[in-house]
Each structure stands twice: as structure tokens, then as C-alpha cells.
């Protein structure tokens, strides 16, 4: 049976892994290459590296970090942050990424999705959507620039457009839950997952095994991503996978 | 030297990286002469089946055929495996190599497509490629089209019905999943190929 993926995310700033609560108050958590390898050995199904400072500081993705991390990773490796053009994407693939994640640049120029998919295949293009529930609660609004700028787009409509333009997966982050440990936003995840055919990765809010079970069962997520709960030793990835598996969710275990 | 065939499609870097890790002498090449004299040939591939049309245009199909006729081991990965069949519904005008009977097709409508993630495979005990790899091992897939079950099938996977996860006939091998992205299991499969 196709298993539900548990994805370890490394938020990188200035060459170090950091993690904030609701995108702020960053704390240092270690070397990206070492952590990537450690997560893989602990049973992560994939590793995602997000260069969170790249967009607003307008500097290129840390290709050296990508290269070092990729050298010892033999599971899928996604890199995002600061990828604005097809050339940027090419450089990241050459450095060893299997997939790229684009967010602000795709919102700014949706044809970028198609350009990268045409050259590297849809399976290599992850469109990341940072979504926040609107004040009146009627919909979820997509944000750009690491959650700093609101857009006119509705998260569900944007996910559907991204799919039609060639995205292979959607990485959906709930800004309301990010870094809180209060659980994934199952309602948001389900709304998006049920409206597209491509896999949806839920992100934002993971605090324990039960949250993963909920987002797979009720949120219809294909994969779930977390960062801080793995970095600070709150939860060992291998323990987490066993607990999720014990609840009847198909996971890759042992791996 | 193992030739990793570059025809403008596929994540060659990750295949090269895995072979480097296994300390194999290998090179990414688009030169038919280099492919023809390689000790082994790996044909990666992701994306669209139509991209394999470039193999015919560049003389690489002939070089691969020459290599196969010399009896050297060949490994097709993902679209590279699909290409070993007669063709694919993804691109009807693009012929496959046709060393295996049948055509690749879509998944049925009742499952999400693409098939992305880790799935288990049932392995035939006679396979050389899967030597010492236990059946029901997990490997990483990402594909929208799949190869039919065939008498060359040595590993099958279940997703919207059974399909060929791996094929093997004499010195020809193909895997639908990505061994270079399938952790220790994948590295073992690649090592088996390198040791042939």
C-alpha cells in the first residue's frame, strides 16, 4: 500500500537551521547537512530544505548547503527559497535537489511553474502555499514572501491553478498553526486535498503523533511535514512513525 | 566505466551521486561512442515519455542497442524502464525500444495520479537485481504512467491494480521506482547491478 509520508523540514537562514513560531523569533538548531542525514537515518521519508531568508534578502539559494546536504541523502530532497527563474531552479537541481519548491515567484509569475515542469518534469515541481484564514472566516488567503505579504488569491483556487499549470505536489502551510504545536489545520488541508488530484503535503502545527494521524485521516493529506518537533528532540522521528503506524495509518516502517 | 545516459531528461545528478557513493567509476554522457563502449549502461528518466524521442535523434538508441547486443548490463530507471517496452499512451507517436512486449498506460481514475511516495514491492526470488533484498521492501515512486505486468516482471507493486515495479530479462533490467532515492534498499539494488 502507498504509505503516508513524514517529511522533515529544515528552515535555513544564513547557513544554519532555524525555526520560528509563526514565522518569527528564530532559534538556532544546527548544521543543515548533518541534520538532513540524521533525519534520513531516523526514518524521514523525505527532507525539505527551505532557505527562509532568500526571498526578502534577495540573495541566491545557498547552493553550497544544498550540495553538502545532497551528497549524503538517498531519499527525496526538496529545496525551496529564493528560486525566481528557470535558471535558479536549474542551479538547485544541479546542486543535487530532486524537487524545487516555489512560492512567491510562482504567485508573481505562474508561468514559472510550467517552465520548470516542462524542463524537469512535474514530479520535480512543488508549489508551496502559505495560507491564512480570512478575518471573516469565509476562506483561506494565500500569502507571499514568507507570510509577510497578503495576496488576492484564495488558497484553494491557487492550488487548482498550480496543478493545471504543471505542479506535481502542493506544500500547504497553515500560517495560523505554524510553529504552535497545536495540530495541523485539518479543515484547510482537506479543502485543498479534495480539490486537486496531485498530492498535498500538510504543514504547520505538528506537535505530536496524534496530529499526524488526524491530518491523514481527517485532512486527507498525502504527506505531512514538520520541523521544530524533530529538531529539539521533542519527538524522535522513528518513535513518531511507529506511533502513527500503530494507529493504522500506513507508514514506511521499518525503513 | 558505467555510462549514465544524458538525453536532456531525468535527474542525472542523483543517479551519479548514488553511484559515486558506491565507489563506481561512472560518467554522465550524451556521446553515443562513449555509451557504446561502456561496461554498463544506466538510462535514467523522469518526466514525459516523449523526451525519449531524443535518444533516436542523437544516435543514442543505436549505441544502447549495440551495447545490449554486446551483452553488457543495461538498467532503465522510471521512464528509462518504460522505454524498454513498445511504447506509452503518454506519447503514442514515440516508439519505445521494444525489447519487452506491451505498452505503458495511465492509472485508473479511482486512485490519485501521479503515484508519489514509498510503496512496497513483491519480489521474485529468482531476480539477480534484487539479490538479498527482502520482498515487501519499501521503495520510492513518482510516476503518472506505469508498465504492464509482463513475463519479465520480477517485482510488482499494487496501486490501482498490479503493475511492473521492476523487469529483468537476461542482462536487461528496469525499475519503475527510483533506487537512487530509495534509501538503503535502493543503494543495495544499485550495488547489485554494479556487481553484475
Describe what this molecule looks like in 3D.
Chain A is α/β, with parallel strands linked by helices. Helices cover 35% and strands 27% of the residues of chain A. Chain A has an eight-stranded parallel beta barrel, surrounded by six helices. Chain A is globular, with a radius of gyration of 16 Å. Chain B has a single domain, classed as 3-Layer(aba) Sandwich (Rossmann fold), CATH 3.40.50.880. Helices cover 23% and strands 30% of the residues of chain B. Chain B contains six helices and twelve strands. In chain B, the strands form two sheets. A nine-stranded mixed beta sheet of chain B has the order 2-1-3-4-12-11-10-7-8, with helices on both faces. A three-stranded mixed beta sheet of chain B has the order 5-6-9, with no helix packed on it. The longest helix of chain B is centred in the last third of the chain and has 12 residues. Chains A and B meet through loops of A and helix 1, strand 7, strand 8 and helix 6 of B.
- By DSSP (H or I, 4+ residues per run), the number of helices of chain A equals 11
CATH architecture tag of chain A? Alpha-Beta Barrel
Strands of the widest sheet of chain B, in order across it, are: 2-1-3-4-12-11-10-7-8
So what's the overall shape of chain B?
globular
Gyration radius of chain B, to the nearest Å? 15 Å
CATH-assigned homologous superfamily of chain A: Aldolase class I
Globally, the shape of chain A reads globular
Structural class of chain A: alpha/beta
Q: Which oligomeric form is depicted? A: heterodimer
Named CATH topology of chain B: Rossmann fold
Largest contact between protein chains? A-B, 32 and 34 residues
Mean pLDDT of chain B: 95
Which percent range describes the beta-strand content of chain B?
A: 25-35%
Beta-strand residue fraction of chain A: 25-35%
Amino acid at each position: 500500500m502507498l504509505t503516508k509520508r513524514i517529511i522533515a523540514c529544515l528552515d535555513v537562514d544564513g547557513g544554519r537551521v532555524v525555526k520560528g513560531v509563526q514565522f518569527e523569533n528564530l532559534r538556532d538548531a544546527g548544521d543543515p547537512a548533518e541534520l538532513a542525514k540524521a533525519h534520513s537515518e531516523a526514518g524521514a521519508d523525505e527532507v525539505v530544505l527551505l532557505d527562509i531568508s532568500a526571498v526578502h534578502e534577495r540573495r541566491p539559494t545557498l547552493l553550497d548547503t544544498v550540495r553538502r546536504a545532497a551528497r549524503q541523502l538517498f531519499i527525496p530532497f526538496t529545496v525551496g527559497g529564493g528560486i525566481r527563474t528557470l535558471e535558479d531552479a536549474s542551479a538547485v537541481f544541479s546542486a543535487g535537489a530532486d524537487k524545487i519548491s516555489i512560492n512567491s515567484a510562482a504567485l508573481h509569475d505562474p508561468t514559472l511553474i510550467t517552465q520548470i515542469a516542462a524542463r524537469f518534469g512535474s514530479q520535480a515541481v512543488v508549489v508551496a502555499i502559505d495560507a491564512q484564514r480570512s478575518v471573516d472566516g469565509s476562506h483561506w488567503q494565500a500569502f507571499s514572501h514568507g507570510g509577510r505579504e497578503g495576496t488576492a488569491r484564495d488558497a484553494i483556487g491557487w492550488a487548482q491553478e498550480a496543478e493545471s499549470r504543471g505542479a506535481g505536489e502542493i506544500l500547504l502551510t497553515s500560517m495560523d498553526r505554524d510553529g504552535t504545536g497545536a495540530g495541523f489545520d485539518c479543515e484547510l488541508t482537506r479543502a485543498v486535498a479534495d480539490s486537486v488530484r496531485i498530492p498535498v503535503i500538510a504543514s504547520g502545527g505538528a506537535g505530536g503523533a496524534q496530529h499526524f494521524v488526524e491530518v491523514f485521516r481527517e485532512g486527507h493529506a498525502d504527506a505531512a511535514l514538520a520541523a521544530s518537533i524533530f529538531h529539539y528532540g521533542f519527538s524522535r522521528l522513528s518513535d513518531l512513525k511507529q506511533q502513527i503506524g500503530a494507529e493504522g495509518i500506513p507508514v514506511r516502517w521499518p525503513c | 566505466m558505467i555510462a549514465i545516459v544524458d538525453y536532456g531528461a531525468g535527474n542525472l545528478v542523483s543517479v551519479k551521486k548514488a553511484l559515486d557513493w558506491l565507489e563506481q567509476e561512472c560518467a554522465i554522457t550524451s556521446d553515443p561512442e562513449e555509451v557504446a563502449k561502456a561496461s554498463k549502461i544506466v538510462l535514467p528518466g523522469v518526466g514525459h515519455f516523449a523526451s525519449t524521442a531524443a535518444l533516436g535523434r542523437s544516435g543514442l538508441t543505436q549505441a544502447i542497442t549495440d551495447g545490449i547486443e554486446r551483452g553488457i548490463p543495461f538498467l532503465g530507471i522510471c521512464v528509462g524502464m518504460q522505454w524498454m517496452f513498445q511504447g506509452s499512451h503518454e506519447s503514442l507517436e514515440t516508439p519505445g525500444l521494444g525489447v519487452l512486449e506491451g505498452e505503458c498506460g495511465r492509472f485508473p481514475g479511482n486512485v490519485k495520479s501521479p503515484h508519489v511516495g514509498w510503496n512496497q514491492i513483491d519480489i521474485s526470488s529468482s531476480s539477480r537485481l534484487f539479490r538479498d533484498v527482502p520482498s515487501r521492501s519499501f521503495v520510492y515512486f513518482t510516476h503518472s504512467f506505469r508498465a504492464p505486468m509482463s513475463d519479465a516482471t520480477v517485482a510488482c507493486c499494487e496501486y490501482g491494480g498490479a503493475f511492473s515495479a521492476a523487469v529483468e530479462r537476461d542482462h536487461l533490467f528496469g525499475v519503475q521506482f527510483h533506487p537512487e532515492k530509495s534509501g538503503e534498499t535502493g543503494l543495495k539494488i544499485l550495488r547489485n547491478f554494479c556487481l553484475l
